[in-house]
């Protein structure tokens, strides 16, 4: 009996809330004309949906909620204060990776490149603006019933903004930078040849990031902080270095301060949990008496320079999606994914061993390789269990979460749901629904 084959049908460039339509049609038989069902999920249109992609996204959303809610109690799963990687540090690369896979389906067939480009730009702009609204400071603390943001201090970058940038660049690569035709892919060399321009973009982005991070000199800089008693305190950060990857004198922060302005950066950077800035490190705590001068300075973990490597993560996901498009056998797909993922892991750990430390805030090259390689292996395992062996019922909640990932992110991760609940109260603001269910003050 021959194994079922899965043929991917793209969506002609149409992209919806779930980031893609990843449908699969089944061509399966037992050699006697009898049709077999593959392990993928049948839709109302008679097509098949790659369930593992929804499950992967749903698990990522669940991890995001866990590390956000439990990370404060268990520092080892919360974001690393600076160098190193914890469970929380894998969440965002997983999102970027799955966006890349999705784009392989969304732009599998593009009849009009100009029209597809306009749609990609429009979708990226919508996502970027949504990020500005949700993460730019418009919504205040969940225990504060006011809202609004000073445009002069709005945070310009954020999670959704970075995803929008990565989506746009990778979508344009898929629309414009590939050889014509869908046939003729029978080997790894052929797929590299077809998408060689996309690989070149990834190499250029990586080289640009590396040259700037380690080659651009970082001068001394000054910032001001208003204390609780309304006193303006001025700090001078002494740098005058090149290639430094510490919190205060790296090129990532310097570029953001120069281009966006320090008032538009994230005001609660993760390095506040380092031993330089917290007597309770790795937890947030009071500043030590000899705190580093940069401790209270804003720093954006979704900055401009580090977004170059975020785009590379998305590009790697795109190539994993191409494997699904062009190779139909389960074993063939999983072997190619596993080899690619293991190679990335080996490279990433080697770079970290030789001093290029894993760092989420800088989105370092070693961090990119390790998190992307982990995402590749994780996706391969989910694909094996869900789409090959058909274990879909146990992961149904994850599949549903994956189909509505953006909505869950907006409502939960951006505190929109708690803020809405906080707004309903009896007589005084403290008598609200959050307090009734035991989560408010």
Automatic annotation (TrEMBL):
This is Heparan-alpha-glucosaminide N-acetyltransferase catalytic domain-containing protein. Residues 1-41 are annotated as: Disordered. InterPro entries: HGSNAT_cat. Residues 14-26 have a biased composition (Basic and acidic residues). Keywords: Membrane, Transmembrane, Transmembrane helix. It holds the Pfam family HGSNAT_cat. Residues 49-172 form the Heparan-alpha-glucosaminide N-acetyltransferase catalytic domain. The chain crosses the membrane at residues 55-78, 90-108, 120-139, 159-177, 197-216, 304-325, 337-356, 362-386, 406-426. It comes from the Eukaryota. Signal peptide: none annotated.
């Amino acid at each position: 009996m021959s194994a079922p084959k899965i043929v991917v049908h793209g969506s002609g460039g149409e992209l919806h809330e779930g980031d893609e339509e990843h449908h699969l049609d089944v061509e399966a038989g037992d050699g006697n004309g009898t049709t077999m069902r593959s392990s993928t999920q049948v839709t109302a249109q008679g097509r098949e949906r790659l369930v593992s992609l929804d499950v992967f996204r749903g698990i990522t959303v669940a991890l995001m909620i866990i590390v956000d809610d439990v990370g404060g109690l268990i520092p080892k799963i919360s974001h690393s204060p600076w160098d190193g990687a914890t469970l929380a540090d894998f969440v965002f690369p997983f999102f970027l990776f799955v966006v890349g896979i999705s784009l392989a389906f969304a732009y599998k067939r593009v009849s009009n490149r100009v029209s597809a480009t306009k749609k990609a730009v429009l979708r990226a702009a919508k996502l970027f603006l949504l990020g500005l609204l949700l993460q730019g400071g418009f919504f205040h603390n969940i225990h504060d019933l006011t809202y609004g943001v000073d445009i002069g201090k709005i945070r310009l970058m954020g999670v959704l903004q970075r995803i929008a940038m990565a989506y746009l660049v990778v979508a344009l690569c898929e629309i414009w930078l590939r050889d014509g035709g869908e046939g003729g892919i029978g080997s790894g060399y052929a797929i590299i040849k077809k998408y060689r321009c996309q690989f070149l973009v990834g190499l250029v982005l990586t080289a640009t990031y590396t040259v700037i991070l380690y080659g651009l000199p970082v001068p001394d800089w000054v910032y001001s902080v208003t204390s609780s008693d309304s006193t303006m305190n001025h700090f001078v950060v002494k740098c005058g270095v090149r290639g430094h990857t510490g919190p205060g004198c790296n090129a990532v922060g310097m570029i953001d301060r120069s281009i966006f302005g320090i008032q538009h950066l994230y005001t609660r950077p993760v390095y506040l949990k380092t031993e330089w800035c917290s007597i309770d490190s790795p937890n947030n705590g009071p500043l030590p008496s000899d705190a580093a001068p940069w401790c209270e300075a804003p720093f954006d973990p979704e900055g401009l320079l580090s977004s170059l490597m975020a785009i590379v993560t998305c590009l790697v996901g795109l190539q994993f999606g191409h494997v699904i498009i062009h190779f139909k056998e389960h074993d063939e797909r999983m072997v190619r994914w596993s080899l690619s993922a293991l190679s990335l892991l080996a490279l990433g750990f080697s770079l970290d061993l030789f001093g290029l430390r894993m760092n989420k805030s800088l989105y370092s090259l070693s961090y990119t390789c390790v998190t992307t390689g982990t995402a590749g292996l994780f996706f391969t395992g989910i694909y094996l269990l869900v789409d090959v062996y058909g274990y879909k019922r146990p992961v149904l909640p994850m599949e549903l979460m994956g189909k509505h990932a953006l909505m869950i992110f907006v409502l939960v991760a951006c505190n929109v749901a708690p803020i809405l609940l906080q707004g309903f109260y009896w007589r005084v603001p403290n008598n609200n629904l959050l307090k009734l269910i035991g989560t408010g003050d």
